[in-house]
Amino acid sequence: MEQRIKIAIIGGGPAGLAAALGAYESGIKAEDILIIERDSCLGGILNQCIHAGFGLHRFGEELTGPEYAERYIKKVREADIGFITDAMVLALNDNKDITYISPTTGIVHLKAEAVILAMGCRERTRGALNIPGTRPAGIYTAGTAQRFVNIEGYMPGKEVVILGSGDIGLIMARRMTLEGAKVKAVCELMPYSSGLARNIAQCLDDFQIPLMLSHTVVKIHGKERVTGVTIAEVDSSLKPIPDTYKYISCDTLMLSVGLIPENEVSKGADIEIDRVTNGAVVDNFRQTSKSGIFACGNVLHVHDLVDFVSMESELAGRSAAKYVTEGFSGENKSDTVPKGGVRYVVPQKYYGSSIDEKTEFFYRVGKNYRNVSLNVLADGTLILKKKLVRAAPGEMGNISLKGEALDKARKASNLVFTIEEGENV
Amino acid sequence: MIYDVVIIGAGVTGTLLARELTKYKLNICFIDKGPDAANAASRANSGIVHAGFDAKSGSLKAKLNVRGCKMMKRITEELCVGYRNIPSLVLCFSESDRAALNELYERGIKNGVPDLRIVERDELVKLEPNISDKAIAALYAPSAGIVSPYELCIAAGENAVQNGASYIFNYEVKSITENDGIYIVSDGNSNVSARYIVAACGIHCDDIAAMSGDLDFEIIPRKGEYMLFDKSCAGCVRNVLFPLPTKNGKGVLVAPTADGNLIIGPNANVSEKDDTETTACGLNEIYENAVKLVKTLPSLKNVITSFAGQRPTPSTGDFIIKFSAKYKKMLHIAGIESPGLASSPAVAEYAVQLLSQAGLILEPNIKFNPYRKKLIKIRELSDDEKQKYISKNPAYGKIICRCESITEGEIVDAIQRPMGATTIDGVKRRTRAGMGRCQGGFCMPRVTEILSRELKKDMSDIRKYGQDSILLYGKTK
User: Fold this and answer.
1) pLDDT tens per residue, range B335-369
2) Do B472 and A151 touch (CB under 8 A)?
3) Closest Cβ opposite residue A38 in set B279, B387, B402
4) Based on the structure, what is the number of domains in chain A?
C-alpha cells in the first residue's frame, strides 16, 4: 500500500503525542498528521509507570504515568489526529520515505513531507555489561520487571539485588518492596547515583534499602534460576577490588544501568548521531542533519522528566509544521560546544538569525558539583553565568538565553557551555 | 512399544542421526535430559563448518569432517537453516611460523580438503581488508562455512519428527539394561525399550558408557567462552579468521555468524561437567586474542551477549564411534568435539552404516520427505510476499521482537511446529525473538504471554528453559 502524509511521527509515547499536538496547534490539519505506534496502545512507557511524580513542571500537579499520558491521548483523540497502533516502522530513508508493517494494513510505503523521530529508548542489558557467571532465569532489566508487575500482574522475583541506580531501578526497588519482595541492595558502579535525588529519598531511604555506591556485580550464580550474586567495591578506575568480594543470595538481579536511544531506524536515513547522547545532532528546531527530519524525547537524549520530553516534543511538532508550511531558509547554523565538566548540550546547533525570543539549552554534567557556575561563552566572550548550588550527572539541567545574552549568541559562530569552579563563582 | 532405535542425546549428532534413520522404515525415538534439542555443545559453539585440515590425517575426525563439510550445503537447504559458504583463513604472523602453516596445508591436502592454498600478504589484504597489519600469510580454505548450530540441530529434530520419529524431553537416563536382546532405558520412573541404542550425549558420553560397562574412554569437558557482537559489527570480517592452532585447539577466532552478528572466541579450559559460566578473565582472554587477528575490532560496548559452551574432548584423541563391548547393539558416538558440527551430517551417515552392519534392517521409507516444513521468516521476504502472508494471517504483521523484526505469526508457528517450542529459549532458538541487541527486554514478556496462550498454561508456568528456570512467582498482591 502507498500512502502520503504531511507529518509522520514515529512513536506514540509522550514525545510522539506532544509532537503531534505541537504540529496540530500550529495549524496542521489533524488528517495531515500520522502517529505510528508499535505497541497496542498510545502512551508508550508511561503506561507501565503507575507511580506518581509526573507533570509537576508541565501541569503543576503530580500525576501517575498513565494519567499523564491520558491528558495527551485525550487531546489527540479530541483533535482526531491520525494514529495507527501495532505498527512498526521497518525503514526510513533521507527522502522521508517510511516503510511500516501492521496486522491491519500489511506493508505500507508512506511518503512524508516531514518526519518526527520519537521512538524513545531501550535499556542496557546484562550482555552489554559483560557480567560474568551463569545465564539463568531471573535477570531482568528494571523496565521488563516493571512491565511484569504493573501490566501483567506477576511477580518476577522475591529476593532482589538491583544493579544500577537509574530512576526505573529506584522506582522498582520501592514497587517490589510494596509487593512483598525483599530488595537486598542497590549497587551503583559510580560514586554517585544516576537517579533523581527525590527517588533515592522516596524509594530507597524510606524503605531502608541500602544504596551501595562504587559497587558492582562481578558474578551471577545459579544454574536455572538466579541463586545469588557476588558484588564488589570498585576503585577509582572502576575496577573491582579483590578483597571486597561479597556474596548476596537472591533470586533476582534487576538491571537499571542506563538507557540507549533507539536510533536503529534513524540510521537508515543516515542521520548524524551525537556520540555522547547517542541521539541525533539537532538544531534549536530539533531538526536533525537531514532536512525535514526532526527528533525529540528520549530518542534524542535521555531525559529524567517526561515534562521536558513533552516541551521539547511540542517544539519539534511546531518546527515540523513550520517546515511543511513555510520551509526553513538556509541560514548558517552555529555550534554549541560542551566543555570542562559539561558532557553534552542539546541542541548541538542553532540558527543564529532565527532563535526564538527565548531559547533553552539542555545539558548534563559529568560528575557531582556543589556551588559552581555554568558559563555560556559566545565566540569566547562570557554572555551568561548561572549559579548552580548543585549539579549531578543524574539530573539534566537547562539554561535559557534571552535578551542581551541572546542577541550576542545570535551573532556568534559558537556557544561554549562550561562549568566554572572556585572563588569567582 | 519397542523402538527399533533409541538415540540418547538430542544434540546435532543425535537429531541428524534420527533424521537419517527416518529414511528407512524404522521406529525411532530420540531422548534428552533437557527440555529441547540443542541443550549443550550444539547450543553454544562457534558455528563453523570447518574445511577439514586440522584433524590428523587418516583419523575418523579428518574423514568425517571433510565429508560433512561437503554435505552441509545441501542438508541446510533441505532443512531451511541459515548457512553461508565463506572461506576460512588461518593466519601466520612470522616467518618462524611458516613451517607450521605449511604443515597445516600439507595435512589439509592429505585429508582431501578442496581448493586449499597458502595466500601471501598482498592477496590476503584483498581477501580480508580488516586483516591485522602483522599477518604475513594465511592458509585459505574456500570450502569452509558458517551455520547456526542450534538451528541445524532443531531443524533436523523437527524433520525427523515430521518423518515419524518420536522424542522424549526432560528424560534423564539413569540405567540401561538388557533383557532378551531388548534394551531397557530408564530414568527411574518410566522405561523406553529398543532393539538398538545410540548414545550421542556429548560430555556425558562416558557416563552413559559406564552404564553399559564401557570404561575404555573418558570425556574431558573443555569450556569455551564467546562474545557475540551487535549486527552493526557484522562488516568487521568477511572470512572466518583463525590463528595457527596450538596444543589447546584451534584458538580464538573472529567470524561472522550465519545470522549476521560477529562472534569471537573460544578459549579452552578444562572444567567441571556442565559448567557454562563465563568468567571475567576468560572474556578478557578471548578479546585480547581476537584483537590480534584484525586491524580493528569493535569495542566491548558493542557486545550484546557472552556465553560459554563445553566441548566433549575424548581421551583417545579421535572421534569414538563404536559398539559397546557388552551391549553388542549399542553404538557409542562419543568425543564429538570440534569439528563435530561440520562433521555431524557425515557422522550420522557413518553411524547408519555401522548400525546396518550390526544387523539393523534398512528398508527405504518411500514417504521420507527431506524438506523441513516451510519456515516463514517475514524479515527475509520481499514486501509483496510479506503482504501476502499478512493478508492470510494478520499475526505476520505484528512485530513482537523489535530488534530482529520477528512477528507474532512466526512465534506461534514455532510453538505449533513438529517438536515445537515450549519455553522462552525454545522460541528464541527457533525464531530469533530475543536474540537482538535488547536481548529480550521488550519481547520476553510478550513471548511469555504468547506461550501461555498457545500452550494453555498460566504465565507462571512458563519457563525460560529448564524445569527450574522459573520466570514468575505467581500474581502480585
Assistant:
1) 999 999 999 999 999 999 999 999 999 999 999 99
2) no
3) B402
4) 3
Best B170, B423, B470 member to test A by mutation, with max A CBs in 10 Å, is B470
For residue B269, report the phi and psi dihedrals to the nearest 5 degrees: -130, 130
Torsion, CA B219, CA B220, CA B225, CA B231, rounded to 10? -20
Q: Inspect the interface and report whether the beta carbons of A125 and B227 lie closer than 8 Å.
A: no
Residues 204-243 of B with CB under 8 A from A: 227-228
**A333 confidence band (pLDDT: 50, 70, 90):** confident
The reply to whether residue A152 touches residue B459, judged by beta carbons under 8 angstroms, is: yes
Q: What is the CATH number of the domain that holds A185?
A: 3.50.50.60
Domain boundary among A242, A257, A272: A257
Q: Which residues of chain B form CATH 1.10.10.1100? A: 378-461
Residues A9 and A109 in one domain: yes
Would A139 be classed as within a structural domain?
yes
Task: In whole angstroms, give the CA distance from residue B49 to residue A229.
Answer: 37
The reply to whether A425 falls in a domain is: no
Residue A342 falls inside a structural domain: no
Q: Which domain holds residue A68?
A: 2-122+260-328
**Which CATH architecture does the domain made up of B378-461 adopt?**
Orthogonal Bundle (1.10)
Are B365 and B24 in contact by the 8 Å Cβ rule? The answer is yes
Q: In this structure, are A129 and A253 located in the same domain? A: yes
Tell if the CB–CB gap between A137 and B387 is shorter than 8 Å. no
Tell whether A252 and A133 lie within a shared domain.
yes
Q: Which residues of B touch A39 (CB under 8 A)?
A: none
pLDDT tens string B261-304: 999 999 999 999 999 999 999 999 999 999 999 999 999 999 99
Separation between Cα atoms, residue B151 and residue B437, nearest integer Å: 19
Is B129's Cβ below 8 Å from some Cβ in A?
no
* A130/B398 Cβ within 8 A: no
CB A225 within 8 A of CB A131: no
Q: Is residue A340 part of a domain?
A: no
Distance CA B146, CA B47 (A): 6
Q: From the candidates A2, A50, A107, which should be mutated to test the interface with B, based on the most B CB atoms within 10 A?
A: A107
> C-alpha dihedral over B118, B119, B121, B123, to 10 degrees?
180
Say whether pLDDT at B175 is over 80.
yes
A107 residue type, one letter: I
Domain span(s) for CATH 3.30.9.10 in chain B: 85-146+222-311
Active-site residue list of B = 50
B273 touches chain A (CB under 8 A): no
Residues 6+ apart with CB under 8 A from A20: A7, A9, A33, A35, A76, A81, A83, A317
Determine the residue of chain A that is closest to B423 in CA distance. Answer: A137
d(CA B260, CA B379): 13
Q: Does B398 touch chain A (CB under 8 A)?
A: yes
Task: Answer whether residue A328 shows pLDDT above 90.
Answer: no
Is the link from the previous residue into B266 a cis peptide, with omega within 30 of 0? yes
Report whether A308 contacts A362 (CB < 8 A).
yes
- Check if the beta carbon of residue B17 is closer than 8 Å to that of residue B351: yes
Which of A257, A276, A302 is the C-terminal boundary of a domain?
A: A257
Query: ipTM of the predicted structure?
Result: 0.94
B85-146+222-311: CATH architecture: 2-Layer Sandwich (3.30)
Q: Do A157 and B386 make contact, defined as CB atoms within 8 angstroms?
A: no
Claim to verify: residue A264 and residue A116 sit in the same structural domain: yes
